[in-house]
Structure formats: C-alpha cells, structure tokens
Structure to design on (577 residues):
C-alpha cells in the first residue's frame, strides 16, 4: 500500500539547532504581501498557518485517494481508511496515548468539550454536584458547562486568577469538594499565555477521585503534551492551532471512561447493527464518530503533527521562548505599554494595552503595516472583566515567527503612537 | 490603504476631546450600546420634548471611531426633530457602507466618517451610537411611563 508513504514526506529541518529561515520557507503564505507590506503574522493563537507538507498531504489525498472510510471494499475506500486510521495512530503517538481507541476525531476543541459535557457529564451529574473550572477559561470551556448546569442542576465553581493571570494550585485545591465531579481546565491561556501546572492539578483532583479534562487548544503547538505523564482523563485540541486544517480536532479520553460513556450523536459509522427495535453501538473510538468524518482534515492534521515532531517539540519550545523573552523586553521599552498576563510560566503569547489607543484602533493601524494581531476579548470575556479591560491587543508566535516579526511589530506600534500623538 | 482617510483630524479631535460626554440629568430616554466584538460600550441619555431631542449626552469606553462617531452624533442631532434624525441616520448609514453615496444634505463633520467604508471591520464601530440612539428613541415611545427600563442593543 503506497498511500501512507505519500503523506509521510515532510520537510526535514536541521536536527541540531533551529533554522527558523528554513521553517519560514516551508510556509508559503509567509511570502505574501498585505497592503503592500510583507506579512507579519502574529495571530497564530487564533489560527496557525500551514506548512507546504500539510497542503500537499491534503491535496494528495483529494487528488488520489478520496473515498468514504470504513465502508467500501474497493481500493480507494481502503486507501482512505488506511490514511484515516494511520492518522489516528500518528495522533496517539503524538499524545503518547496507550491506544488508538482513546483517540476520537471531532470538529475541534469546542466539540470535544461539548462531547464530554453531554456524554460524560449529563448522565452522571445530580443537582448540587460541582464542575470546577478556572477564571482563565476560553468561552469553549465555560459555555458547555453552563449548558450542562441548566440540564442537571449542577453548579459551576471557578478558581480565580491572580493579578499576574496565574491560577495557583492552592486556588484549585481549595475549591475541590466532596461534590466536585469534574475539573475542566485550560493547559495554556489563549488570552494571556499562562501555562497551568496540569500535573499538579491532576494530582490534587485524583486525590479526591475527580477526573480532569484539559483544554489543550493553545498548548499542543507549544508544549510537549504527554497524556500519560500529565495523567489527565480527557485532553482536547484543534488541528488548526497546530499547523493543520480547520474543522478537525481530537478528544483523547481514558479508555475506561470512554467505554462507560454513551454515544452523544447517532448515525452511520457509530453502529454495529441497526434494526427498528435496537441498535448495537460500535466499539471505541467509532462509537463517538457518527457520520462521515472530515477525512482530508484528519490527513492534514497527521501531516502537521509529523511536521511538528520533525522540527522537534523541545526545539520549537526553546525557539519560541527566546522569542517571547525578546518580544517582552522590546515591548516594555514602549512608553504607555502594559503587558497583561505576567505569570511565571507562559507560552508564546503576549497580551498588551497601550495608553490612549484602543486595541481595535491598534489592530487597524498594524494591519495597514502588514502586521496581523488579534484584538478584542479573545473569547475570554471573564479574563477581560478581571483586568477591567474592554479588550487587549495580542501578539502570538509560532514555530515560524522570528525576531524580524517582533521588530516589525515594534515599528508598527510606533506608527500607531504617531497617529494618536 | 490610507489610514489618514480613517483617522482624519476631526475624528482624532473628537476621540481625544469628546463633546457632550457624561450623563444627562434629568433625562427622559436612555439606551446602552455594546459591541461585544471589540468591547465597546456606550450609554446614551436624552431629553426629548415635542418630538425634538433637546439635549443628549453619552459616556462609555470605545475605540477612536466609536467615540468620535458618538461625539459627532451628539452635536449633529441636538435640537433636531425625530424626522430630521431619521433622515440623518439614513444618510450616515449609506455613508458608512456605500462608496458612491451622495448624501441628501450637507453632513458637516459627519462626512469625515466616510473613510470608514474602506475598513469593513470598523463600520460597526461607527454605527453603534446611531443604533443606540434609535433604541433610546424607541424606548421613549414605548415606555414613557417606565423610564427605568433602559434598553440595551448589541452589534456584532
């Protein structure tokens, strides 16, 4: 079977050292201009760009191998199934899960969390039971629990953030109670970049026999995620934050828990046998994958994860941390600039405000300079409320970001200050 | 992309020194406007008499475009009848969205908002205050008996 070989091509970076120029060359979009200026893409936390190998993998799948999975006896269906299931094993290896039965393909982090809320939470929770989250959460890790609260009468308990944008393990430990049924926490804050101590949180929760769901959307591109080492029960992430296509993501769940959980959507592929009297559900992970999945997206995701592995997660992390330090130091030289989120451990995300210039105006002026940043509440309104801000500007970095990006950001911020001088 | 079209002198001036900024007392109409996308919030208070906006003030927090637009709007509608305001609203709406628009009247300072149409992501910043004004006028019609019910509008 040649299919699997076709997509495992990846642009091999230097094993030793980190050649950011070579990394940039692998991302074709970085050569384009925006408003006549070179693109300075500092919005990877919203969505990362794709390397050529991901674009090629999707293109190769669409061009040569597409058919429906798990259905046909013909060659194309077999090739598509091999690619799809091969991708599941790539994800398993990437997360260091024990089994591909623990890897469920979903539309993204949001769907993964909704799946756990509805399939794990809804049958179990009683009025007065508690779900513990933190003040750092993205709306995707707040709203599904509020919906579950409406359905079950459970309570939502929030471990607050401190002035640095951190959530201490003590703040979490103090809110674990006899009624806590699930802890749902972000691994890395999308708004501030704070990295939470997931191992410690899991240890504290498990001491009370409480399972832990981790929203890993912002962590997977930056951190070395090993679900066995973390010890978490569920881990969710999105392909497009880690250089893969949009519309696909992953729910990792411990097999014991997934086995106990009922399906949350019914349809094709998630069944073994259907009569009008009775349906027998398929085994894991197919029980949770009703309907034809996003096959090309999954193929692209696997190519993206192989690309990240080829670059080396420790190498990416070290590169991004050097860049984060450089950007932080440079930004702090700007008069009137305040960095929001100064937790001791951060990923490559910087939220900031500048006196006298609304973030929305900053975003427009920076865009005119070819600099793409995110402005607004970052789908984390409670974080903005905590800092009593309507919005922040956020620069976020990826494996392809370099010092010239930071320098162009600085120049564009100077241009903005000139407009509002 | 010409930023000086968007951030014209008059807009920066109204952003830095907003006119009619504060809360009007007494007031017999009010509304809150909120653009959740950028976090802009504004609170509008009006005194209406004989179908005419006698006085109005706004406060809140917003970007340069939304603050300047609100400030210029308060100047433009003060003393005007509802019918005049409806015509003005219509003209401003077209000004913000249509490249070839010829207004039915001299829009004065408001014409400076025409630069916004080259920046589609910012049109809602400029129009938030006008939608809020409409909500305040509608509230006055419906609930003159209950002026404590402040309507809230949201654009996204």
């Amino acid at each position: 079977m040649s299919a699997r070989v076709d997509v495992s091509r990846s642009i091999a970076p230097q094993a030793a050292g980190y050649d950011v120029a070579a990394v940039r060359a692998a991302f074709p979009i970085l050569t384009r201009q925006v408003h006549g200026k070179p693109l300075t893409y500092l919005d990877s936390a919203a969505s990362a760009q794709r390397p050529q190998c991901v674009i090629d993998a999707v293109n190769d799948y669409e061009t040569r191998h597409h058919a429906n999975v798990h259905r046909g006896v013909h060659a194309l269906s077999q090739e598509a199934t091999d690619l799809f299931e091969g991708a599941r094993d790539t994800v398993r290896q990437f997360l260091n899960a024990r089994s591909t039965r623990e890897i469920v393909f979903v539309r993204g982090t949001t769907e993964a969390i909704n799946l756990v809320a509805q399939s794990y939470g809804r049958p179990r929770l009683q009025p007065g039971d508690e779900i513990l989250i933190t003040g750092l959460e993205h709306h995707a890790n707040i709203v599904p629990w509020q919906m579950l609260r409406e359905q079950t009468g459970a309570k939502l308990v929030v471990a607050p953030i401190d002035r640095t944008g951190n959530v201490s393990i003590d703040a979490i430990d103090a809110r674990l109670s006899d009624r806590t049924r699930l802890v749902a926490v972000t691994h890395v804050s999308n708004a501030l970049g704070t990295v939470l101590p997931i191992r410690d949180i899991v240890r504290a929760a498990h001491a009370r026999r409480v399972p832990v769901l981790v929203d890993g959307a912002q962590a997977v591109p930056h951190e070395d995620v090993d679900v066995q080492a973390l010890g978490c029960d569920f881990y969710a992430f999105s392909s497009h934050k880690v250089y893969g296509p949009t519309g696909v993501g992953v729910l990792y769940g411990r097999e014991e828990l997934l086995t106990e959980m009922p399906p949350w959507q019914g349809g094709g592929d998630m069944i073994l046998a259907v009569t009008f009297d009775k349906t027998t559900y398929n085994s894991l992970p197919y029980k949770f994958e009703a309907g034809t999945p996003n096959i090309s997206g999954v193929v692209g995701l696997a190519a993206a994860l192989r690309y990240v592995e080829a670059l080396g997660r420790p190498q990416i992390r070290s590169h991004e941390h050097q860049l984060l330090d450089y950007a932080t130091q440079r930004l702090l030289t700007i008069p009137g600039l305040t960095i929001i989120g100064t937790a001791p451990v951060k990923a490559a995300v910087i939220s900031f405000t500048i006196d006298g210039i609304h973030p929305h105006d900053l975003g427009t002026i920076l865009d005119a300079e070819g600099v793409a940043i995110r402005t607004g509440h970052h789908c984390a309104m409670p974080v903005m409320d905590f800092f009593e801000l309507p919005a922040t500007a956020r620069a976020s970095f990826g494996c392809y970001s370099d010092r010239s990006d930071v320098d162009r950001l600085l120049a564009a911020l100077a241009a903005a200050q000139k407009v509002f001088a | 992309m010409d930023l000086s079209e968007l951030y014209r002198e008059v807009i920066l001036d109204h952003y830095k020194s907003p006119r009619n900024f504060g809360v009007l007392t007494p007031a017999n109409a009010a509304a809150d406007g909120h653009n959740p996308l950028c976090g802009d919030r504004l609170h509008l208070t009006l005194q209406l008499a004989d179908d005419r906006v006698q006085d109005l003030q706004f406060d809140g927090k917003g970007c340069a475009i939304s603050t300047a637009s609100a400030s210029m709007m308060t100047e433009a509608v003060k003393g005007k009848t509802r019918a005049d305001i409806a015509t003005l609203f219509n003209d401003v709406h077209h000004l913000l969205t249509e490249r070839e628009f010829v207004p039915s009247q001299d829009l004065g300072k408001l014409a400076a908002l025409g630069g916004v149409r080259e920046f589609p992501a910012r049109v809602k910043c400029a129009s938030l205050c006008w939608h809020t004004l409409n909500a305040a006028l509608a509230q006055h019609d419906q609930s003159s008996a209950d002026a404590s019910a402040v309507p809230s509008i949201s654009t996204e």
The radius of gyration of chain B is 15 Å.
